Amino acid sequence: MIHTHSGKTIRFEIKYKNRASIGITIDSYGNVEVQAPKGTPDEKVLQLLEGKWELIQQKLTEMKDRLQGPQEKVYDHGESFLYLGNTFPIQIFQDSKITQDYVVFEGEKLHIYVKQSDDDKIKQALKRFYYQQCKALVEKSVSFYQGNFKTKPRSIRISDNNKTWGTCDSKQQLTFNWRLAMAPHEVIAYVVVHEMCHMVHMNHDRSFWRLVGKIMPDYKEKENWLALSNWKMTV
């Protein structure tokens, strides 16, 4: 079916099932499906759709952007970068007197101070900022959740390994991807808990997930955020 509302048109499929209420799902390709109790009038379905219209449009836009993949960044005023789950514009300040390029989050902007206004210099300053923020955020989360564990991590490191968000080796050395600084606080906390649980269970068996769920019951929501957002966590 096709429906137009507020100047926007969407195509959706209705499936009638033995259920008590109407539900709306959007898959990873942007297909909209409405599941409704048998006998539900079309008018009621459309009423629900219109009530969720803004949210549906937002999700469809996110899916479209995700399918297109990461866009090449422009290292200039106004370009946006993720930080703690939200996007913020950058503002560049050139200062020949500074000894090292650096980034400060201030006034809902990422202020980038560079000796030379060069794309590579700006990119490296951003990466350094994310490294530093990730280290501080991870250490804070480790400290917060340490009471759940008898063993303490031997070390905490930040890496450039894009294949994983975190690792825990047999020596209880924890390593985390610097891009985690782009995720919300609660997602960073989940990755920390996940790796700390590996200090107790080295594999992903049932006992491991039981421990993760005990400490963080809604961990699947955090996993879902990473699965849907990892493509845009880049500089």
Structure description:
- By secondary structure, the protein is of the alpha/beta class.
- It contains 6 helices and 11 strands.
- The strands form 3 sheets. It has a 4-stranded mixed β-sheet. Strands 5-6-8-7 form a 4-stranded mixed β-sheet, covered by helices on one side.
- The radius of gyration is 22 Å and the shape is flat.
- What is the gyration radius calculated from CA atoms? 22 Å
Biggest sheet, in brief? Answer: 4 strands, mixed
Structural class: alpha/beta
Taken from the alpha-carbon principal axes, the silhouette is flat
Side-by-side strand order of the widest sheet = 1-2-4-3
Mean pLDDT across every amino acid position: 92
Care to count the β-strands?
11
Strand content: 25-35%
Secondary-structure blueprint:
Layout lengths: L1 E4 L2 E10 L5 E4 L5 E6 L4 H10 L1 H16 L11 E4 L2 E9 L7 E5 L2 E6 L4 H27 L9 E5 L6 E3 L4 E5 L7 H13 L8 H10 L3 H11 L6
Parallel strand pairs: 2-4, 6-8, 9-11
Antiparallel strand pairs: 1-2, 3-4, 5-6, 7-8, 10-11
Helix pairs in contact: 3-4
